[in-house]
Amino acid sequence: MARKSVGIRDVARAAGVSVTTVSHVLNDTPHTRVSEETKKKVRDAAAALGYGPNRMAQGLRTQRSAMLGLLSEDIATTPHAGMIIKGAEETARKHDYTLVIINTDKDADPASKHRDVDALLERQVDGILYATMYHRAVSLPPRLFEIPAVLIDATDRTGLVPCTVPDERGGARTAVMALLEAGHRRIGFVNNTDDVPATHGRLEGYRDALKAAGIDFDPGLVAARESEAAGGYEAALEQLDRPDRPTALFCYNDRMAMGAYRAAAQLGLAIPQDLSVIGFDNQELIATGLHPGLTTMALPHYDMGAWAVETLIRLIDGHAEEKLLADRPTLLPCPLVRRDSIAPPRDTTRKPAPDPHPPTD
């Protein structure tokens, strides 16, 4: 026997209120005079009866689909950035939205990206999230501007779309401050060669921290290479194979830090006893797999996904001013993840104190 469907009148009867009151409560209609006690009674009755609002009927009435599109460049296949999707999906669900995800290659031709946006618009999504990897400026498909949109880990070259990115400069400042607080004064920076915001922001943060500590910036303590383990090895070797070597290294990312570990081992330097190292990105397979575990800065992937959805829904509802939000990127902090790669420096310059009682002939 087919199960009798539960309707809004059944909920109203069970809660002892009108159908209109049930509709207002379950649809979160703003500016209605319904007490919290009545709202609870209606929601409890709906839950007990297994009733949920008809999404199709709601969509016809409100001209909303309750769906958000997420167009991602590579992040769906990048393990350490999957938290962007999790943050976006969990926040969307909290607001009763469904996330529709299309993954694309960052090097895909513009026509392909245009088709991806068209596919989301054909599904009548209420807004689009556009997420990239590696924090960079992007040119967006023109049709993306037809509905509310928010960028994640990227900036829009036109300056018209709100976006959120990691606070690269602040994260680097925190990283170097951790080394300074441990007592280091001669700190090398193993940087990236790519012309991307993270390269410049992390160098600025490195300089900020030194300046705050009253330490002059020494260009000789900065070595830039490809941002992979091999590049980190080469840059660290350049820094460490010298008489006045630094006692600590701040590395552009965890892959470069892995190369720095190799350079230190080759030179017979123990981490952290002889050399402290801090990375960036918190790529856990690397950071926890190194010995000792790598202290590093985490990128705020989950928070960026969550912020983007919250902001997109505010834009859809007309509760946010797009131009004001797009005026500058929203910077989210990078938290410090402490492991075991930082220790106070050894004093390698101190000479033994003279014997107060030298032997006599």
Automatic annotation (TrEMBL):
Q: Where are the transmembrane segments?
A: none
One GO molecular-function entry: DNA-binding transcription factor activity
SUPFAM superfamilies per the UniProt record, alphabetical = lambda repressor-like DNA-binding domains, Periplasmic binding protein-like I
- Bias type Basic and acidic residues, positions: 337-361
Keywords assigned by UniProt? DNA-binding, Repressor, Transcription, Transcription regulation
Q: Name one Pfam family in it.
A: Peripla_BP_3
- Specify where the region named Disordered lies, as residue ranges: 336-361
Is Endoplasmic reticulum included in the keywords of this UniProt record? Answer: no
Report the residue ranges that make up the HTH lacI-type domain in this protein. Answer: 6-62
Say which domain of life the source belongs to. Answer: Bacteria
Q: Which CDD domains match?
A: HTH_LacI, PBP1_sucrose_transcription_regulator
Cross-referenced PANTHER family? HTH-TYPE TRANSCRIPTIONAL REPRESSOR PURR-RELATED (PTHR30146:SF148), LACI-RELATED TRANSCRIPTIONAL REPRESSOR (PTHR30146)
- Its recorded name reads LacI family transcriptional regulator
What taxonomic lineage is listed for the species of origin? Bacteria, Bacillati, Actinomycetota, Actinomycetes, Micrococcales
